[in-house]
TrEMBL record, chain B:
<dbReference type="InterPro" id="IPR011012">
    <property type="entry name" value="Longin-like_dom_sf"/>
</dbReference>
<dbReference type="InterPro" id="IPR022775">
    <property type="entry name" value="AP_mu_sigma_su"/>
</dbReference>
<feature type="domain" description="AP complex mu/sigma subunit">
    <location>
        <begin position="1"/>
        <end position="102"/>
    </location>
</feature>
<protein>
    <recommendedName>
        <fullName>AP-4 complex subunit sigma-1</fullName>
    </recommendedName>
</protein>
<comment type="subunit">
    <text>Adaptor protein complex 4 (AP-4) is a heterotetramer composed of two large adaptins (epsilon-type subunit AP4E1 and beta-type subunit AP4B1), a medium adaptin (mu-type subunit AP4M1) and a small adaptin (sigma-type AP4S1).</text>
</comment>
<keyword id="KW-0472">Membrane</keyword>
<keyword id="KW-0813">Transport</keyword>
<keyword id="KW-0653">Protein transport</keyword>
<dbReference type="GO" id="GO:0005737">
    <property type="term" value="C:cytoplasm"/>
</dbReference>
<comment type="similarity">
    <text>Belongs to the adaptor complexes small subunit family.</text>
</comment>
<dbReference type="GO" id="GO:0012505">
    <property type="term" value="C:endomembrane system"/>
</dbReference>
<comment type="function">
    <text>Component of the adaptor protein complex 4 (AP-4). Adaptor protein complexes are vesicle coat components involved both in vesicle formation and cargo selection. They control the vesicular transport of proteins in different trafficking pathways. AP-4 forms a non clathrin-associated coat on vesicles departing the trans-Golgi network (TGN) and may be involved in the targeting of proteins from the trans-Golgi network (TGN) to the endosomal-lysosomal system.</text>
</comment>
<dbReference type="InterPro" id="IPR016635">
    <property type="entry name" value="AP_complex_ssu"/>
</dbReference>
<dbReference type="GO" id="GO:0015031">
    <property type="term" value="P:protein transport"/>
</dbReference>
<dbReference type="Pfam" id="PF01217">
    <property type="entry name" value="Clat_adaptor_s"/>
</dbReference>
Length: 784, 135
C-alpha cells in the first residue's frame, strides 16, 4: 500500500526522461538527415499546443504534428516510435482522431524494450477496442508477456487485458491469468484478480474457473489482494445465485476481517483520516449486504459487527462518514434486528443535522429509500427534511422535495402543504413541474376539506400555472362542480384571481368555465366566506372579453371564454334557452383514482354514446357486475355509475331492449285477445329515471294457426314521447310458440295521464287482421 | 462502477480523461463540456454530488483544477469523494509537487501505465494504483 511518509519510487522513467533519451540517436544517421525538423519531444508538443491562442491555431499545430507522426510511422522508424505514439495518445486525449496509430501499438508491444512495451500497451488501451478486429492481434503478445515472469511486464499486460479484453481474448487467456492468481508476488496477484473481475464480466462462464481460488485468497494479509478478492467475490455473487450460496459460507471470515480492521489501531500503511483502510471496509460491507440479503442466518452473524462498526467509527472526517453510510445501507438491506434498523435511521437523522452538505445529500437519498418500509421512523425527521427544502443547493432541494412529498400523510397534510407551497414560489424552474404535480397529487389524496382542496389547487395554479399537468383543469372543474356549497366561494375567488392576471392559461380556463357556470352567483354578491364584493355584469363581460382578445390566450382558453359568454347570455338575461345551456350536471371523471367500476361504467357510457345501436352489455348485467366488484373491493363508490348522466340522454341509451329489465311492482295488463292471440303489457319504471316508462308488449299465440307478419304500432298523447324498439320478430308459432316481444319507451316528464292506442296487423288462419284500440285500465303507477 | 474520470481546468480544457465504457470520440467532448459546465456553476457551499443524465457526478476542486468522476447508481458517493482525494495525494507523492498547470501533461502520460491498473471498480483501483513501484 502507499506509504504516505514519502517512500520514493524506483527510478522509473517519466516521460521527460525517456523522450530525452531518444535525441542522441538521431544525428549521424543518414536517413535522418533528410528530416528538416527533428521530431518533437512530447513535452515540447504540449507546450506548443498550450501556446496556441485559439482553437483554430491549436488544430493547426496538431494537424501538422499528426502529419509528421504519420510519416514517421510509414517510414517505420523503430527508435522513435514510442515517442511518436506518446504524442499521438496525448492528441487523442484532447479529442482528435488517432486511429492510424493502432498498428504501431502492436509493433511496440511486440518489441522487447520495456519503454516500448509500456507506451504500446497504453496505446492499446486507449486506441484499440472490441469493435476493431485488430485487437485480437495482441492476444499472442499478451500471452507471451504473461508467461515471461517479468513482473512489470506482466503487470502491463494484465492491465491492458482488463481494460480492453474482448470475450475471445478473455477465453484464450483465462488459464494464464488463473496461474498468476497464485503467484507469490502481491503486485502481480492483485492485478490478476482485477483482470479476473473483468473476464467474468465479459464471459460469465469463466466464473467456474475463478471461483475456487477465492477462498484461499481471502486468507491473505495484503490489503490490495483482499480488496481485489472481495471485488471478485462480489462480482461472482451478483452474477450467479449458485455462487451466492457458495459464498455465504465465508460470511464469518469476512466478519472477522472487518472486525480486525475496525479494532486495529493506527497503521501508517492503511490509515486514511484515522480510519483504517476505509475502502476495504466499504467493499466488505457491500459484499456483506449482498450475502445477507433475504438470508436470516447470515444477517444474524453480521448484526453485532454492524452495530460495532456503526458505533466505533470516527465520524469527524469524510472517510469515517463514508464507512458509516455504507453500514447504514447494509443494515437497511439485510434482515437486520429491529434495534439495528432504529440505529440506522438515527444515524441518518444525525447525518441530516450535519453541516456538511454532502452528508446531508446522502442522508436524504437513503431516507427516501427507507420511507416505504419504515415510514414512521422517517416521519420523526420530518422537520429537518422540511428545513432542507430551503437549501439553495439544487441537488439537496430536489432530494428534499421528493422526500417531503413522500412524507405527506393525512395528519400532517396542512402543515406540509404550506411548506411545499412556499417552496413552490421560490424554487428553481426545473423543479417547479415536479413540485406542482406533487402538491396536486398529495392534495387529492389527503385533502381534509373540499374548500381546502380548492384553495390549494387555486394557489398552485396562480403560482405555477404553466407547469401543471394537462388534466389539472379538468380535475379542478370536476371538483368545483361537485362541491355544491362552494360554488359561490369558488367563483368569487376565481374571479378575483382572473381579474389580477390573465396570463396563466390553466387558471384562466378554469375561471372562465366557472364564471360561465355560476355567473349568477357571482353577481348575486353575497358569500359569507369572503368579504362581499359588488360585481357588475359589465365588469364580468369585460373581463371575459379581455381574455378572448388577449394574445396570450391559447385557442382552448378562447373556447372556454366563448362558452362562458354564451352561458352568461342566458343566465344574466333570464332567458331560458332550455336544455343546452342548463347547469351542467356532474360529469363522471376519468381521473387516475376513479374506482374500477366507475371507469368501466364511464367506458360503457362512452361506448353507448358513440353507438346508439344496442350492442352494449345490458343494464342488468352491468348492475350484476357492479355487485361482484362491490363484494371484491371493500371501498366502493355508490351511487351506481349510471346516476349522474346528464338528463335522460345516457340512461335511455343504456337501457337496452333485448332483455327485460328487472321486474317492477306494476302489474301486467292483458289488453287484447282474439282467437287465441293475446297481447300483454308489462310496465317498468326504472327508479333512477322517474320520467321513463318501459312497456314490454308480448304477443302470444295459443291457437292452432301461426301468426305471421305481426306488426304492432302505438300512439300516445302529445305531451308524452314514445319510442318503439324493434320487435323480436313478426311470427308467433301456433300452440304457445315463442312469443314476440317489443319494447316501448315512453318519456313522461310532466307526469301527464298515460293513454295508449294500439294498432295491430297480422295474418292469422290465412286472414289478414287489423285491430285498432285504446288501452283502458292503465295502472296509475305507470304515469304518476 | 466508475464510468469516467476527468480532470478539467476552469477554462473547460480537459487535462486528463479516462473512460471505462466506450464513448464515441465526438460524444466525449460534448460530455466533458456539459459536465464541466455543471460543475463550474456551483458555488463553494453546495454539495459535491450532481445528478447528470443517468450518472452521478462527484467532483472536487483543487485550485484551478476540477477532478470529476462519473459513477452509476450503485456507488457510495462519499467513498468516491475520498478516493478522489486519495488520488491527488498519490500524485502529490509521486511528483514532489503538484502544480496543476505544468505538471499535468507529464503526470498523465507517465502515470497512465500505472494507472492502467484502473479497473472499473473504484476501491480496487485504489488498491492497484497505490502500489505503484515498478520494481
Amino acid at each position: 500500500m502507499l506509504n504516505r511518509k514519502g517512500r520514493r519510487w524506483g527510478a522509473d522513467a517519466c516521460v521527460v526522461g525517456f523522450s530525452g533519451g531518444g535525441v542522441g540517436a538521431e544525428f549521424g544517421d543518414p536517413l535522418r538527415e533528410r528530416m528538416v525538423v527533428p521530431s518533437l519531444k512530447l513535452q515540447d508538443l504540449i507546450e506548443e499546443i498550450r501556446g496556441a491562442k485559439t482553437q483554430a491555431q491549436e488544430r493547426e499545430v496538431i494537424q501538422k504534428e499528426c502529419a509528421h507522426i504519420r510519416a514517421s510511422f510509414r517510414d517505420g522508424d523503430p527508435v522513435h516510435r514510442h515517442r511518436q505514439l506518446a504524442k499521438l495518445l496525448y492528441v487523442h486525449m484532447l479529442g482528435y482522431p488517432a486511429h492510424f496509430g493502432q498498428m504501431e501499438c502492436l509493433k511496440l508491444i511486440a518489441s522487447s524494450r520495456f519503454t516500448d512495451k509500456r507506451v504500446g500497451y497504453l496505446g492499446a488501451m486507449l486506441l484499440l477496442d472490441e469493435r476493431h478486429d485488430a485487437h485480437l492481434l495482441i492476444t499472442n503478445s499478451i500471452k507471451n508477456d504473461l508467461s515471461q515472469g517479468i513482473q512489470p511486464v506482466q503487470g502491463l499486460a494484465l492491465c491492458t487485458l482488463s481494460t480492453m479484453g474482448s470475450a475471445e481474448m478473455c477465453r484464450d487467456l483465462a488459464p494464464e491469468v488463473e496461474k498468476l492468481l497464485l503467484q507469490p508476488s502481491p503486485y502481480v496477484r492483485k492485478k490478476a484478480i482485477l483482470t479476473a473481475v473483468h473476464m467474468i464480466r465479459k464471459v460469465p462462464e469463466l466464473s467456474s474457473v475463478f471461483l475456487p481460488p477465492c477462498a484461499q485468497l481471502l486468507h491473505e494479509r495484503h490489503h490490495g489482494i483482499l480488496l481485489g478478492t472481495i471485488t471478485l467475490i462480489t462480482e461472482l455473487c451478483e452474477r450467479s445465485p449458485a455462487a451466492l450460496r457458495h459464498f455465504r459460507k465465508v460470511v464469518p471470515q469476512l466478519v472477522h476481517i472487518l472486525r480486525t480492521l475496525v479494532t486495529m489501531g493506527y497503521s501508517t500503511e492503511h490509515s486514511i483520516s484515522g480510519v483504517s483502510d476505509p475502502f476495504l471496509q466499504v467493499q466488505i460491507l457491500r459484499l456483506l449486504r449482498i450475502l445477507g440479503r433475504n438470508h436470516e442466518e447470515s444477517s444474524e452473524t453480521m448484526n453485532d459487527l454492524l452495530a460495532q462498526v456503526a458505533t466505533n467509527t470516527d465520524t469527524s472526517r469524510n472517510a469515517g462518514n463514508a464507512v458509516l453510510f455504507e453500514t447504514v445501507l447494509t443494515i437497511m438491506d439485510i434482515r437486520s434486528a429491529a434495534g439495528l434498523r432504529v440505529l440506522a435511521v438515527n444515524i441518518l437523522g444525525r447525518f441530516l443535522l450535519n453541516s456538511d452538505r454532502n452528508i446531508r445529500y446522502v442522508a436524504l437519498t437513503s431516507l427516501l429509500r427507507l420511507v416505504q418500509s419504515d415510514h414512521s421512523a422517517v416521519q420523526r425527521h420530518r422537520p429537518t427534511v422540511v428545513e432542507c427544502l430551503r437549501e439553495t443547493d439544487a441537488s439537496l432541494s430536489r432530494r428534499a422535495l421528493e422526500l417531503s412529498l413522500a412524507l405527506v400523510n393525512s395528519s400532517n397534510v396542512r402543515a406540509m402543504m404550506q411548506e411545499l407551497q412556499a417552496f413552490l414560489e421560490s424554487c428553481p424552474p426545473d423543479l417547479r413541474a415536479d413540485c406542482a404535480s406533487g402538491i396536486l397529487l398529495a392534495a387529492e389524496r389527503f385533502a381534509p376539506t373540499k374548500r381546502w382542496h380548492i384553495d390549494t389547487i387555486l394557489h398552485v395554479l396562480t403560482t405555477a400555472g404553466t407547469h401543471v399537468r394537462d388534466d389539472a383543469v379538468a380535475n379542478l372543474t370536476q371538483l368545483i362542480g361537485g362541491a355544491q356549497e362552494l360554488h359561490a366561494y369558488s367563483v368569487r375567488r376565481l374571479y378575483n384571481a382572473l381579474a389580477e392576471d390573465i396570463s396563466q392559461q390553466p387558471l384562466v380556463q378554469v375561471a372562465a368555465w366557472c364564471i360561465g357556470e355560476y355567473g349568477d352567483l357571482l353577481l348575486a354578491g353575497n358569500c359569507e366566506e369572503i368579504e362581499p364584493l359588488q360585481v357588475d355584469e359589465e365588469e364580468v363581460l369585460a373581463l371575459l372579453e379581455k381574455v378572448l382578445q388577449s394574445h396570450m390566450s391559447l385557442p382552448a382558453t378562447r373556447g372556454y371564454a366563448l362558452t362562458a359568454l354564451m352561458k352568461l347570455s342566458t343566465r344574466l338575461c333570464g332567458d331560458n334557452k332550455a336544455a343546452i345551456l342548463e347547469k351542467m350536471p356532474l360529469v363522471e371523471r376519468d381521473g387516475p383514482q376513479a374506482d374500477e367500476e366507475a371507469k368501466e361504467s364511464k367506458e360503457a357510457a362512452q361506448l353507448s354514446e358513440a353507438a346508439p345501436v344496442p350492442t352494449e352489455p345490458q343494464a342488468s348485467q352491468l348492475l350484476d357486475l357492479l355487485d361482484l366488484l362491490d363484494g371484491a373491493s371493500g371501498d366502493v363508490q355508490h351511487p351506481p355509475p349510471l346516476d349522474p348522466s346528464p338528463g335522460g340522454a345516457l340512461i335511455h341509451l343504456l337501457d337496452l331492449p333485448c332483455v327485460p329489465p328487472p321486474p317492477a311492482p306494476i302489474p301486467d295488463l292483458k289488453v287484447f285477445e282474439r282467437e287465441g292471440v293475446q297481447l300483454n303489457l308489462s310496465f317498468i319504471r326504472p327508479p333512477e329515471n322517474p320520467a321513463l316508462l318501459l312497456i314490454t308488449v308480448t304477443a302470444t299465440n295459443f291457437s292452432e294457426g301461426d301468426v305471421t307478419h305481426f306488426i304492432c304500432q302505438a300512439a300516445v298523447p302529445k305531451s308524452l314521447q314514445l319510442q318503439l324498439q324493434a320487435p323480436s320478430g313478426n311470427t308467433v308459432p301456433a300452440r304457445g310458440g315463442l312469443p314476440i316481444t317489443q319494447l316501448f319507451r315512453i318519456l313522461n316528464p310532466n307526469k301527464a295521464p298515460l293513454r295508449l292506442k294500439l294498432r295491430l296487423t297480422y295474418d292469422h288462419f290465412h286472414q289478414s287482421v287489423q285491430e285498432i284500440f285504446e288501452v283502458n285500465n292503465l295502472p296509475v303507477e305507470s304515469w304518476q | 462502477m466508475i464510468k469516467f474520470f476527468l480532470m478539467v481546468n476552469k477554462q473547460g480544457q480537459t487535462r486528463l480523461s479516462k473512460y471505462y465504457e466506450h464513448v464515441d470520440i465526438n460524444k466525449r467532448t460534448l460530455l466533458e463540456t456539459e459536465v464541466i459546465k455543471s460543475c463550474l456553476s456551483r458555488s463553494n457551499e453546495q454539495c459535491s454530488f450532481i445528478e447528470y443524465k443517468d450518472f452521478k457526478l462527484i467532483y472536487r476542486q483543487y485550485a484551478a483544477l476540477f477532478i470529476v468522476v462519473g459513477v452509476n447508481d450503485t456507488e457510495n458517493e462519499m467513498a468516491i469523494y475520498e478516493f478522489i482525494h486519495n488520488f491527488v495525494e498519490v500524485l502529490d507523492e509521486y511528483f514532489s509537487r503538484v502544480e496543476p498547470i505544468d505538471e499535468l501533461p507529464k503526470i498523465c502520460s507517465a502515470l497512465e501505465p500505472q494507472q492502467a491498473c484502473f479497473s472499473p471498480d473504484s476501491s480496487s483501483f485504489k488498491g492497484a494504483a497505490s502500489t505503484t513501484p515498478i520494481y
